[in-house]
Amino acid sequence: MFVKLSVLFQTVLFLIINLSNISEAQHHRYARYFAQRNHRALQIPSHFKDTVSLKVYYESHCPGSVKFFKEQLAPSLERLGRHLDVHMIPYGHAKTVYENGRYTFKCQHGDVECYGNMLHACAIDVARNNTKAALFNACIMERTNDYNRLNYLVNSCGHQYNISANAIWETMNTGRGAMLLKGYGDETHALRPRYVPYVVLDGAVADSVTTNHLGYFACRLFNPRLSACDTSLYVIQGYGHETSALRPRYVVFEEAVAGCYNCYLYIAVTACDDIDPGNKIIDLYAHHNRSYENKSGDKVDVRLYYECMCPYCIDFYTNTLIKTVEKLGAYIDLKTYPYGNAERKDENGKTVIGCQHGEEECYGNKLHACAIDILKNTTRSVSYISCMMSGQWENSGSDDNGANRCGKEMGINAKKIIKCAKDKKGEELLEYYGKETDKDVPDKEGVPWSLINGIYVNGVGELDKWLATICAALDHPPPHCKKL
After folding, report:
1. Cα angle: 401, vertex 407, 408; to 5 degrees
2. Which of 365, 356, 426, 360 is nearest to 395 (CA)?
3. How far apart are CA 379 and CA 385, in angstroms?
4. Partner of 426 for a Cys bridge, out of 76, 106, 189, 421, CB 3.0 to 4.6 A?
5. Is the pLDDT of residue 271 over 50?
6. Global pTM?
């Protein structure tokens, strides 16, 4: 009898060990499958867990990647340290080219981004410590086309985090840097992320983490809760200067503080579907600029700052914005500002505007500004501008051809709009939108930049979250909101 029990015990133990190994092997073999399981709930596990895996697919000069590293990843690593097992894949939307016996790269934001990506890859290799490498990479991330500036940051940040700048450059110059970047390219191409930064937290794609509070979501996965997680949530009294400094996106009242009156639990999130269903949104307007507050709740203030030739702006305008107007147009007070990342300069007493994508974009922005001014109808002007922008890749977008084509389709006199854009009126309108953009969002980081009741909300590729945010700001949301 004892022998039989011993054999049974050994058999069970053998199966447990081998099944565990199979599961682990499958996890690595099907990493892409696990990474693509979108919208898996980030729930607190019932078993002990003090480390959470984090994979970040990104590129060094992408505005969203820079923002994520500096505002989300670095602060979370400084707080949670070894409890975040971070893996960085610095490649993004680049392309690998093999010619003349060596690898070269073409990057979305030019050669300087390729140089930055390789610096990141070499830093990961040299540091031999992903946490330290991530902090170093966050330190050197800066949207600059100045190679000397990047090299200065490598020296400065290397000294700060005890990583040898000389070792990084040696790794790059020996050709190992190219091989490392090629490897990250292979890993990125295997997953084929639609956007960057692309974050996989504990095996699940975490879309909201890129613009929200990484530390908060990571802390929900630890069991038991870490003491360091206590600083992920902030209880704030009222709307004083402390609130303004934190610049919260939502103010949420949780059951955990149900007995606390006139106090607010701050969680930096921009989408309701990442908040526990049991939580109740108390106030959406804890923001440093109170002028946007909508006390009646009947209309939500929506503002879009954009430029006509930016691919992300085109995607946002022709997908998110136009559908928002179609579904919730009666519930929003929409203002659009066609100026974007342009710059105003004073030359010999005259204001000169230079646009990010050249003179063609400046003219397209004027067409948009004139359409807004002449049509005097938000829904009609948005539809007309969306029509122009949807033809951008046919070389018939925000130009005279696009204006005429869309005017013919919609019964709009495009000649007036074109005349306005070519006259002094177009210059005046563009200058006006430039001043408004610089005044309202002086610290914007790229476009499109959108505000809902004065609060920044990323709506690129996130139509449902964007609509849900507007619905949450309404005192009396329409039936359509219940479907979200």
Report:
1. 95
2. 360
3. 10
4. 421
5. no
6. 0.46
